[in-house]
C-alpha cells in the first residue's frame, strides 16, 4: 500500500482584514510574547468564520480553520470550493509561501507550484534563463535541466520566443512555459491552482493529459485546484471540498462534486438546479425543438430537431465559442461539435439571456444520453454537465431494433443480387 506523501494536520490560518500584521506595534508584541511563552494567540477568540458575504465585526477572520487531510504517493487529489473558500491560502501554506497560524504540514519530496501567472519567473530574464532558474530552485542540477530542455520548450509551444525576456510574454505564454518546466523537471509533488484556465482549450487539454501521465507513469503526486468540474472528474480519484475555510467533505471525486454542485432539484425538466459561482455567465436550461415527441427532452433516432441552450451572460463576452458533446453514461463521447466548425469565427454575447441552437439528426440507438455544453472566451466561462438526460426513441422510421443493436442507427439500404 502506498504511503502518505502529504499529511495536513489541524491547519488554521487567521488574517486581519485591511491591515499589515495586526495593525499596531503593541498588538504585534502581544502576539509575539504570547507565542514565545507557548500561549494561544490572544486574537483567536475574536476571529470569525470567513464568510465573504458578511461584514466582519472584529476584523479578524479564519481563512482556514482546522483543515486535515492526507494524500497518497502518486495520487491526483482535487481541491474544490467556491471563491473565497480558502483554496489558495491552503496551497500557499503547502508551497511554504506563508505559514499557518496553527497546525502543521508534513511533505515528503520536492514541490513545484503553479499558483499564479509567472510564479517563480524573473521578468527581465529570457524564457531560456528562467527554465534554468526554476530548475535550480527545484533542486535540479544543470546537466539534468539541459537534458530535458528540448522537451520543455517543445511542450510549451513557444520555441520562437524562448530567448525573449518573459516580461514581454502574454499571460498564456507565461503559463505554457511555467507548466512545462514544473511538469518536466520531476518534482515529487506538483501543485496547480486555477492558473491553467488562462491557457487556451488546446493547451488545457494537453496539460490535463500530462498531469495524468505524470501520476500514472511516473508515480508523482498532483494537487489540482479548479472550478472546472469536468476536469476535476476526469483527472482526480479523490478530493476535498472547502467552504468558508473549513472541510465540508473528503471522499471520492463523485462524492465531493455531488456535495459541491448540490441537488439538481429541477433535474427532470432541463432547468439547472445550482448555478456556478462566477461573475461572467452560465447556462440555465436546455430543451429540444422540432421533435415529434411530446417530451421536451426526447427525440426519435435520425429525427431532425434542434437542441436549445439558454446562456446568461453577466458581462459582455467577446471571442466566444460554443462546445457541445453527447456522451454515454460511462463518459465516452459520441458526438463533439464546436461553433467554429460552422461559423468559421468566434462570436460575442451581450449581458442578458441568449439561446444557443444546434441542429442535428442523431443516428444512435434508443437510450438515455448525457449532454455537455461549454462556452469558451479566452478561458472557460462555464461547462455544464447536465443531469437531465437526452432520451432517444427508436420508432421514428421502420421497426424497433432489438436488444442486440449497436450504438449507431444509421440509414442503410439492402439488396439481393443473383450471381
Please give a structural write-up.
With 419 residues, the protein is an alpha/beta fold. It has two domains: 4-259, P-loop containing nucleotide triphosphate hydrolases (Rossmann fold, 3-Layer(aba) Sandwich), CATH 3.40.50; 267-393, Coagulation Factor XIII, Chain A, domain 1 (Distorted Sandwich), CATH 2.70.50. 23% of the residues lie in helices and 33% in strands. The chain contains nine helices and 20 strands. Strands 12, 14, 15, 16, 18, 19 and 20 form a seven-stranded mixed beta sheet that branches. Helix 3 (127-137) packs across helix 5 (171-184) and helix 4 (142-156) packs across helix 5 (171-184). It is globular, with a radius of gyration of 25 Å. It starts with a strand and ends in a 26-residue tail after the last strand. The mean pLDDT is 80.
CATH superfamily of the largest domain: P-loop containing nucleotide triphosphate hydrolases
Shape: globular
Backbone CA Rg: 25 Å
Helicity level, as a percent range?
Answer: 10-25%
What CATH architecture of the largest domain would you give? Answer: 3-Layer(aba) Sandwich
Beta-strand proportion: 25-35%
> What characterizes the major β-sheet?
7 strands, mixed
CATH class designation of the largest domain: Alpha Beta
Which structural class do the helices and strands define?
Answer: alpha/beta
Notable characteristics:
2 domains, 7-stranded mixed beta sheet, single chain, 419 residues, Coagulation Factor XIII, Chain A, domain 1, 33% strand, 6-stranded mixed beta sheet, Rossmann fold, alpha/beta
Amino acid at each position: 500500500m502506498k504511503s502518505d506523501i502529504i499529511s495536513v494536520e489541524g491547519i488554521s490560518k487567521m488574517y486581519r482584514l485591511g491591515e499589515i500584521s495586526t495593525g499596531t506595534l503593541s498588538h504585534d508584541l502581544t502576539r509575539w510574547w504570547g507565542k514565545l511563552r507557548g500561549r494561544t494567540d490572544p486574537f483567536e477568540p475574536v476571529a470569525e468564520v470567513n464568510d465573504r458575504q458578511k461584514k466582519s465585526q472584529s476584523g479578524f477572520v479564519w481563512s482556514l480553520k482546522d483543515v486535515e487531510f492526507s494524500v497518497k504517493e502518486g495520487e491526483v487529489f482535487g481541491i474544490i470550493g467556491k471563491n473565497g473558500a480558502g483554496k489558495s491560502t491552503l496551497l500557499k501554506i503547502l508551497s511554504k509561501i506563508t505559514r499557518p497560524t496553527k497546525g502543521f504540514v508534513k511533505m515528503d519530496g520536492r514541490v513545484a507550484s503553479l499558483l499564479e501567472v509567472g510564479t517563480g519567473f524573473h521578468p527581465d530574464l529570457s524564457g531560456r534563463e528562467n527554465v534554468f532558474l526554476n530548475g535550480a530552485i527545484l533542486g535540479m542540477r544543470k546537466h539534468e535541466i539541459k537534458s530535458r530542455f528540448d522537451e520543455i520548450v517543445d511542450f510549451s509551444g513557444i520555441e520562437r520566443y524562448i530567448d525573449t525576456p518573459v516580461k514581454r510574454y502574454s499571460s498564456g505564454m507565461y503559463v505554457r512555459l511555467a507548466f512545462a518546466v514544473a511538469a518536466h523537471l520531476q518534482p515529487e509533488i506538483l501543485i496547480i491552482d486555477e492558473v491553467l484556465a488562462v491557457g487556451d482549450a488546446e493547451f488545457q487539454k494537453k496539460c490535463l493529459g500530462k498531469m495524468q501521465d505524470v501520476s500514472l507513469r511516473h508515480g508523482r503526486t498532483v494537487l489540482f485546484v479548479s472550478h472546472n468540474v469536468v476536469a476535476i472528474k476526469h483527472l482526480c480519484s479523490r478530493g476535498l471540498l472547502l467552504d468558508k475555510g473549513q472541510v465540508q467533505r473528503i471522499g471520492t471525486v463523485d462524492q465531493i462534486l455531488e456535495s459541491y454542485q448540490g441537488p439538481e432539484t429541477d433535474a427532470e425538466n432541463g432547468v439547472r438546479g445550482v448555478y456556478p459561482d462566477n461573475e461572467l455567465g452560465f447556462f440555465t436550461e436546455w430543451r429540444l425543438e422540432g421533435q415529434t415527441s411530446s417530451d421536451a427532452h426526447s427525440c426519435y433516432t435520425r429525427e431532425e430537431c434542434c437542441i436549445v441552450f439558454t446562456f446568461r451572460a453577466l458581462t459582455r463576452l467577446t471571442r466566444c465559442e460554443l462546445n457541445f458533446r453527447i456522451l454515454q453514461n460511462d463518459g465516452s463521447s459520441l458526438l463533439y461539435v464546436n461553433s467554429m466548425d460552422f461559423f468559421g469565427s468566434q462570436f460575442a454575447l451581450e449581458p442578458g439571456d441568449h439561446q444557443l441552437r444546434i441542429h442535428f439528426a442523431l443516428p444512435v440507438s434508443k437510450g438515455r444520453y448525457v449532454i455537455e455544453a461549454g462556452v469558451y472566451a479566452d478561458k472557460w466561462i462555464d461547462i455544464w454537465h447536465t443531469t437531465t438526460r437526452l432520451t432517444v426513441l427508436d420508432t421514428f422510421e421502420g421497426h424497433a431494433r432489438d436488444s442486440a443493436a449497436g450504438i449507431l442507427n444509421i440509414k442503410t439500404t439492402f439488396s439481393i443480387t443473383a450471381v
